[in-house]
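Q: Here's a chain of 208 amino acids. Please give me its 3D structure as tokens.
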Amino acid sequence: MTFNLAQVAVGRVGALLVNAREVHRLPTKGAEARGREEQPREAVLRVFLEVVKRGGFAAVARDSNVDPSSISRAIATLESELGGRLFQRTTRKLTLTEAGESFLARIGPLVEELERAREEVASIGSEPSGTLRLSASVAFGQICLVPLLPAFRRAFPRLRLELLLSDANVDLIADRIDLAIRLAPSYRGDVVGSKLFATRYRIAASPA
């Protein structure tokens, strides 16, 4: 058996390692509908926080490049939904009511936490992370995979690779194997496979 195309195969292996971590659950129609409903509410909450921060509708409108009346309507809609006034409006200034201060105390941290959660999810989605269990035969692992581990770690520093080398018939499900490399004419079972490269088998014997 020869591994003359091992370097070509390793690039394919790297792609499989990344794809093995990028399995996303698709949203249901109900979830999509809820997302469309919740997005405007979140936007209104952010408008509320900006009005508190800037102290008026006009400043927020200038920052957002919109008409001040649209900011006023957004706050009025929010107050209508809550059933109470959030701001005390005068010709000179805009101040929070008691209800507004209570609402701010609860909403402010929630919106900040939501933003941090989004940033965390985005950072995880942009770079593979976690633990990936890879199974291969002893010979293939030692010849083809082990020499490339340092480069793989530099390329994917947040991904912890568990390399399981064995010539035994490993149960992928029972042993929680994420990715397996097998030297065989075909694969069986409920798995998704991709050919890395072709191998050749030879019969060899020592001189008599």
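Q: Can you summarize the key feature?
A: The longest strand covers residues 130-136.
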